[in-house]
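About this split. The held-out portion is used to measure sequence recovery: a designer receives only the structure tokens and must propose an amino acid at every position. Recovery is the fraction of positions where the proposal matches the reference. Here is one held-out target exactly as it appears in the evaluation file.
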């Protein structure tokens, strides 16, 4: 009974080993490190730098736009009866009180 799962585990291990190029041990690890390093410098790093440059260009374009809207005054609070002005919360329009 225990030989069944051991055999299937061995088959899976063999399949994974063959899928990774059939190399074992230190040479397998070294080949993956080389492949990962090449992938980083050929694909990942250039795309990150391109994205960073595009964001910098967009920020410069937004900062140099002299027609962009800039809020210069604070908004005036809405003077409603039960709203933002302090002291008006206890007052009411009911003549019964």
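Reference sequence for scoring:
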């Amino acid at each position: 009974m225990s030989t069944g799962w051991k055999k299937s585990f061995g088959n899976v291990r063999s399949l994974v080993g063959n899928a990774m190029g059939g190399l074992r041990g230190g040479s397998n690890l070294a080949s993956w490190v080389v492949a990962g390093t090449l992938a980083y410098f050929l694909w990942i790093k250039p795309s990150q730098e391109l994205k960073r440059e595009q964001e910098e260009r967009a920020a410069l374009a937004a900062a140099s736009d002299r027609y962009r809207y800039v809020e210069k005054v604070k908004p005036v609070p809405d003077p409603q009866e039960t709203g933002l002005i302090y002291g008006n919360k206890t007052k009411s329009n009911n003549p019964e009180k």
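Annotator remark: The mean pLDDT is 77.
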